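To start, one record:
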Amino acid sequence: MESHAGLAATPRALPYYVAFSQLLGLIAVATTGAWLGLYRGGIAWQGVLQFNVHPLCMVIGLIFLQGDALLVYRVFRNETKRTTKVLHGLLHVFAFIIALVGLVAVFDYHRKKGYADLYSLHSWCGILAFVLYFVQWLVGFGFFLFPGASFSLRSRYRPQHIFFGATIFLLAVGTALLGLKEALLFKLGAKYSTFEPEGVLANMLGLLLAGFGMTVLYILTRADWKRPPQAEEQALSMDFKTLTEGDSPSSQ
């Protein structure tokens, strides 16, 4: 179905779900800042406040920006495939850089304080998510942005790329929830069960992160909301496969 000649129609409910996801994500980022500012003293690169750089960067990078990168192919339905690929890749680059800053901050803080590294489930899941995210970006760049991979190889890898993208995103959300609970237990201890204001605010943050993750995943799993291939993309795909493999591609 097309709303104008050559333009794919946007499913009626899609913009509302996308807007809702952005609302949840932005509130989650703001709530993270409020939690760190009100109860953890704010953020700085030196002193005890250096640790607070870690949760803020991870929420912005590995959750909010990564989620937005996953939604690019749902939101930009009529732009050229090349444009959406570049935007998808750039958002992932920004997410990776911001997450790297958060990772460096926590390791540097632990080193200065003499604390142990990588002993908790949160840290194990976090390193796993970060490494998988980096590998996913490198492999995705090699297959989809760097000219060289054959049409059939791209087609075979695409389902794995989509699966691992969603899996890494959910792993990042789950890791953030583990870290949030860990931080609360370290500071509040038994007072956590007495509905301390910090605990209530952090619990709300956890619900916002979970809600953002579920909303993004729902948008991604709606098959009828996928970005339809444009006529010029199908022609380019046919030309590309003919050049690389000597035959015509089947419709996708």
Notes: Strands lie at 2-4, 7-8.
